[in-house]
Design goal:
The complex is a heterodimer of chains A (about 475) and B (about 70). Chain A is of the alpha/beta class and about 475 residues long. Helix content of chain A is about 35%, strand content about 15%. The longest helix of chain B has about 35 residues. The chains are: A alpha/beta (about 475), B mainly alpha (about 70).
């Protein structure tokens, strides 16, 4: 078998199923791992790690749950919800997967900005999404998928071509030589396959051992496909050789298997129900392409001069999806975008949280200014970690006044002030606690102003602390 | 390009997505703030829903007129 690695990508995606037997939550990873032939545990670990990076793993898992059908179902939850069961079962899945990849990469890039990996991931994702979209267009126009070439013993590189069965057959059968028993024709090499005891030969090879007269010149595709002929009721009358093919005398014109061939290849003659024409619209691909282009332009901006927050990517994608849907109100049709837009809306707050987490500055930070001039001015931003501002070495006179603005994502924020200073604390904690001097408060959305004049009452300099913390604990003491 | 009958689902969700994305810069650059968001979000939902209602009514009226 020499299949090009990309040739069956869309087939693989279409055949992807959530595992019923090997599931922890919804069987997404079990199914994917089964398809890839790797240990599900590996994927679970990777997903768990990715979940820590801005929730990428969670988003990807949710997408898989939505877009991959259950093991014994034809369509995914997302497709069922949008009522697209009948037509092009892979369509939405493929588009959704592409969109999901973009989304996941955005979140991942948000977690890894500045590291280079985020950019690599972003570029790969965009390329992958474009490839997937192009593939999807190809599927719609019925471009034949490359057939796996099978090296039969007698016919190296013989390809059971769908497009030209007659000519390929003719070429193949030129190699057939008359058998020693004077039968019409028995292929030189694969002839023994008709004997019992060689069950490892593929069914097609057995086919190759058949005489040329067995196949009509205009054999339809399925006659040369790799699927064995479905046994019919007549089979019981045949000699049971184990291979399913009679090897007794007179088998070229045998009445038992001849009728079974029409059974086999009459099926494709029944035309599949014509898909509703409105289903395949230019609008969906157009919108998604516009999204990809816009994200690419944003990424170029981000890389060159401007710093684009992660949520800007999500918001831009959402705006374009919305515009596409608005066009779809009157022209074209792209209801599949609704699902994508809902996912983007869900991702928007997540990405805005990711904006606040500048992971580069994570860790433990201690700031200990020696003089008033050395006190940092302007907004000080920190990601996750422990931040300590030790102001005890400041020598403040009564006229000195300093202000410190700190914005921290997650962690612990401690400020130690000189004993005599008059301190005003404006603490704003999304989720957590504020402990300033003798006061304590906590819970979600804690916003407090605490004023403490120190041991000496008024005087000793003024310190204003504007502390904004996402999740964690703010501590102010002397 | 042929104009088809108003697709209300596309209209509603398209407006919703555009509205949410339009709110993003307001929130990001802190123009709106949390209190502003608490007003803006319901206003957006109500206006989108009203647009959907109007579009649906228009469709119903057109369908009825078409039958006559």
């Amino acid at each position: 078998m020499s299949e090009p690695p990309t040739s069956n990508l869309s087939t693989d995606l279409r055949d992807l199923r959530r595992s019923r037997s090997n599931r922890v939550v919804a069987g997404v990873l079990g199914g994917v791992a089964g398809r890839l032939g790797i240990d599900p545990l590996l994927l679970r670990i990777v997903t768990a790690v990715l979940a820590l990076f801005g929730g990428v793993g969670i988003v990807m898992y949710a997408l898989g749950w939505l877009l991959i059908p259950d093991e014994d179902a034809e369509t995914s939850i997302g497709e069922q919800a949008l009522g697209r069961d009948e037509t092009r079962p892979a369509g939405l899945g493929t588009v959704g997967l592409a969109a999901g990849l973009v989304l996941a990469a955005l979140l991942a890039a948000g977690g890894m900005f500045g590291s280079g990996i985020g950019w690599l991931l972003m570029i790969l994702t965009v390329v992958g999404a474009v490839l997937l979209l192009r593939r999807q267009d190809g599927d719609g126009q019925g471009v034949p998928e490359p057939q796996p070439s099978v090296d039969y013993p007698g016919f190296p590189g013989y390809v059971p071509s769908v497009a030209e069965p007659a000519t390929t057959d003719a070429e193949a059968w030129t190699r057939v030589e008359p058998g020693p028993t004077g039968e019409p024709g028995v292929a030189t090499e694969p002839a023994p396959t008709t004997e019992p005891g060689t069950p490892d030969q593929p069914p097609t090879a057995e086919r190759a051992g058949m005489p040329a007269t067995a196949l009509p010149a205009s054999a339809p595709p399925s006659a040369v496909s790799a699927t064995p002929v479905v046994p019919t009721a007549d089979d019981s009358q045949r000699t049971s050789t184990g291979t399913g093919w009679p090897d007794g005398p007179g088998w070229p014109e045998g009445p038992d298997w001849g009728p079974s061939l029409p059974d086999d290849y009459l099926e494709p003659a029944v035309p599949p129900p014509a898909p509703v024409k409105a289903k395949s619209s230019w609008l969906g691909p157009l919108t998604l392409s516009a999204v990809v282009v816009a994200l690419g332009i944003l990424a170029i901006n981000d890389a060159t001069w401007a710093s684009v927050p992660v949520s800007a990517y999500v918001a831009t994608a959402l705006a374009i999806v919305g515009a596409g849907l608005l066009i779809g109100t009157w022209f074209g049709r792209a209801r599949g975008l609704i699902g994508l837009g809902i996912l983007l809306i869900l991702a928007l707050p997540l990405s805005m949280v990711a904006d606040g987490l500048n992971l580069e500055s994570a860790g433990s930070v201690t700031v200990r200014p020696q003089s008033v001039d050395a006190v940092p001015t302007g907004l000080q931003e920190y990601g996750a970690g422990s931040v300590v501002y030790d102001l005890t070495e400041l020598e403040l006179t009564d006229t000195d006044s300093i202000t410190i603005d700190i914005d921290q994502g997650v962690g612990e924020l401690r400020v130690i002030v000189p004993p005599e200073a008059d301190v005003t604390v404006n603490a704003d904690v999304g989720l957590g606690a504020v402990e300033a001097f003798q006061t304590r408060s906590g819970g979600p959305g804690t916003s407090r102003q605490i004023i403490d004049r120190g041991d000496d009452g008024a005087g000793g300099g003024e310190i204003t602390l504007n502390l904004d913390l996402g999740v964690g604990k703010v501590e102010v003491g002397r | 390009m042929k104009r088809h009958d108003t697709d209300v689902a596309s209209l509603v969700f398209g407006l919703l997505f555009l509205g949410v994305s339009a709110m993003w810069p307001l929130v990001h650059f802190d123009v709106l703030g949390l209190p502003g968001l608490e007003v803006a979000a319901p206003v957006l939902l109500v206006s989108v829903g009203l647009a959907g209602l109007v579009a649906s009514l228009g469709r119903i009226r057109r369908d009825r007129d078409g039958v006559r």
